[in-house]
Amino acid sequence: METPGSQSSLHRANLERVVRAVRLAGSLTQAEIARTTGLSAATVSNIVRELKDGGTVEVTPTSAGGRRARSVSLSGDAGIVIGVDFGHTHLRVAIGNLAHQVLAEESEPLDVDASAAQGLDRAEQLVSRLILATGVDRAKIAGVGLGVPGPIDVESGTLGSTAILPGWTGTKPAEELRARLGVPVHVDNDANLGALGELVWGSGRGVKDLAYIKVASGVGAGLVISGRIYRGPGGTAGEIGHITLDESGPVCRCGNRGCLETFAAARYVLPLLQSSHGTDLTMEAVVRLARDGDPGCRRVIADVGRHIGSGVANLCNLLNPSRVVLGGDLAEAGELVLGPIRESVGRYAIPSAARQLSVLPGALGGRAEVLGALALALSEMGDSTLLDGTLSAATPAFT
Amino acid sequence: METPGSQSSLHRANLERVVRAVRLAGSLTQAEIARTTGLSAATVSNIVRELKDGGTVEVTPTSAGGRRARSVSLSGDAGIVIGVDFGHTHLRVAIGNLAHQVLAEESEPLDVDASAAQGLDRAEQLVSRLILATGVDRAKIAGVGLGVPGPIDVESGTLGSTAILPGWTGTKPAEELRARLGVPVHVDNDANLGALGELVWGSGRGVKDLAYIKVASGVGAGLVISGRIYRGPGGTAGEIGHITLDESGPVCRCGNRGCLETFAAARYVLPLLQSSHGTDLTMEAVVRLARDGDPGCRRVIADVGRHIGSGVANLCNLLNPSRVVLGGDLAEAGELVLGPIRESVGRYAIPSAARQLSVLPGALGGRAEVLGALALALSEMGDSTLLDGTLSAATPAFT
DNA sequence: AGCTTAGAGTTCACTAGTTGGACATAGGCG
DNA sequence: CGCCTATGTCCAACTAGTGAACTCTAAGCT
């Protein structure tokens, strides 16, 4: 860090290389590390010793079969990461370790009208409870990922106006949570985190370019470009909900007319069914009814799918991702909504862009965002936090 | 390269660091290099000597004022790059050096119906002529960037079907030009190269995320994301011409209806004016007439602008670039087209995405693509080709 | 003019860190 | 039981960057 092109930076890079290799593979013998990283066996030997002394890595004295291979793995308590996700109606928290394992996960209902301070208090309590339950060491927290359902200003970390959590507008949730927990907190909006979650644990594994479409009370998209979340210079990339489908369509809350949201989001779609199906309908209920065969709900969901498909088609023409993952409650509808989406994409996207596209339902359901928050904490940590000695007390100074 | 984490790779990285610093700044003294790269003065001294011996860098013995500063700059003959651009009606070639200077540039008309082989022959001749004219050494060619007006398959380098150069479909222009010139050739389509050109030399300087909209016989966009061209996994990102504006609009050549292209591209727009302005109208003429006050042409151009603005609004909602640059003939219309674009963007994009957006005309006109091809060659070269000894005969082997 | 000063570039001894090869170890296999 | 093979460790060699001392030049001051 201090000296960008020096040997110590090289050494550091090699440390990270080894840590990353071990993380990706779960556990490796030193010889395997040497092969996959391209480093020499001697170097690996030194590095492993250093990491072991520092406590970031564990060496299980002998592996199962073989001659005398010692398998190296990230020590379970080398560091933990926490994901916190504020949704429309509930708060979710997950705790994971550096090996991408989820140790504990819990959600609880959240009062929509609560203030940011109250919400964050609740989050802090839930985090503490989970830490206690899993028995991990608070000092080992490497970072926290935080998801909020609204636009975050990249520079300042300020939450923009959000219809979902009205009491939160203008707050800086990352800073406040950081103050409460005393560890680095990284925020992002729920669509981006959903994308990250599905990318790392769900339907997006193995893909480099992905769009995660979340349909809930609004419609948003999280874009992953070349394996990284793309937020745009202003932090508002992915606003697929407000692309114009019909210039003379219904007026949208954003002030324009005929936005995708006015055809697909819960707050615009549910009223269509209220006269026939009662007023306290939720999207979840509509999906359930549709699966049970209710023709009205089926029709509405298919129409929503078609409109989303139009939006996705535009997205494909512009970005050409290799996969689109549908999240939110609507994803539960399965083919009832995916079929119309695919049909619409096939009709409106140029063939070469649509050809290698796969449209899949999210594999994580409502967990996508929390897990994405975990993934955010992991990725922001950047393999190097481990080495700073901030977590583990050892590592005798190589200034 | 061979040894990913070794000292020699570190050394190489430092060489590249220095080369890049010099390239970006034009010329620097050693002390300045040390400051900008973070390397120590001693290291810089060694590296500069090595580069000087290798011929990649020139040291002008004494700078103008000051004590005894020796300014370091890339040696003019360290390497040259060539840009070749096939347009709808002409072929352009440019020669530049590593210092981002354009040494020579020339264009000549091209027969639309010519075969790929004929076109490439012409290109080869023109390149040879320019090499002769500038007196550079053929052996110093570090790379060639090639622009073609059609979709390129990323994997194979095959040119997809293009309405502009019908004789070229299915050829692999990069390979063929490589065979003719004997140096690495990198292809891309004209919109991407236009984006790159404007990014490096034109209206996009200093910006990291940019969309270049090219309106000609079709409508395409080149996307620059985080400073790099974004092509998408399938290589067809940026097809803004085929996003749907009106589901029941005119049938487009792509098979869909109401694509942006059907409202904005020359082949669809010019017929509107043929009854009143004659049949052999070109976009260029329309723009000229509009500037001279012709109300019909003004109206058509404004309409085109409005439609482009709708497309750009969608693009902004999805990608949120900080700048949109308009290229192609249409850009010559200036405010006549930019005004309606901005108005449309303001109307259809969500405010937070539109707020920090600037919409500018391209600064390079028809040269954007060739210059982009130069830039492509430069960027693909990746600062390291210089060090391989393939160009300059010196550099006494470090394995 | 002469002295001082300050920044530029070079040299040198030192140090960090990787590598190849030699060596010890331990299970599988004949 | 001994050979073989692959693993992990140790050591000497080597590569490359760094700080400090040194030289050099021109500008500024007296």
Features of the shown structure:
homodimer; 399 residues; alpha/beta; Arc Repressor Mutant, subunit A; Nucleotidyltransferase, domain 5; 3 domains; 5-stranded mixed sheet; 41% helix; disordered C terminus; DNA-binding; ROK family transcriptional regulator (chains A, B); WH_DNA-bd_sf (chains A, B); DNA-binding transcription factor activity (chains A, B); WH-like_DNA-bd_sf (chains A, B)
How would you characterize this protein structure?
Two copies of one chain form a homodimer. The first copy, chain A, has 399 residues and is α/β, with parallel strands linked by helices. Chain A contains 13 helices and 13 strands. Chain A has helices spanning 7-25, 30-37, 41-54, 116-134, 173-181, 190-201, 261-264, 266-277, 283-291, 295-319, 335-348, 351-355, 368-381, and strands spanning 27-29, 57-60, 71-74, 80-86, 90-97, 102-109, 141-148, 185-189, 210-215, 219-225, 228-230, 323-327, 358-361. In chain A, the strands form three sheets. In chain A, strands 6-5-4-7-8 form a five-stranded mixed sheet. A five-stranded mixed sheet of chain A has the order 11-10-9-12-13, with helices on both faces. The radius of gyration of chain A is 23 Å and the shape is globular. Chain A binds a DNA duplex (30 and 30 nucleotides) through residues 3, 5-8, 10-11, 14, 29-31, 39-46, 48-49, 62, 65-70, 398. Chains A, B: Belongs to the ROK (NagC/XylR) family. Chains A, B: InterPro entries: ATPase_NBD (IPR043129), HTH_MarR-typ (IPR000835), ROK (IPR000600), ROK_cs (IPR049874), WH-like_DNA-bd_sf (IPR036388), WH_DNA-bd_sf (IPR036390). Chains A, B: This is ROK family transcriptional regulator.
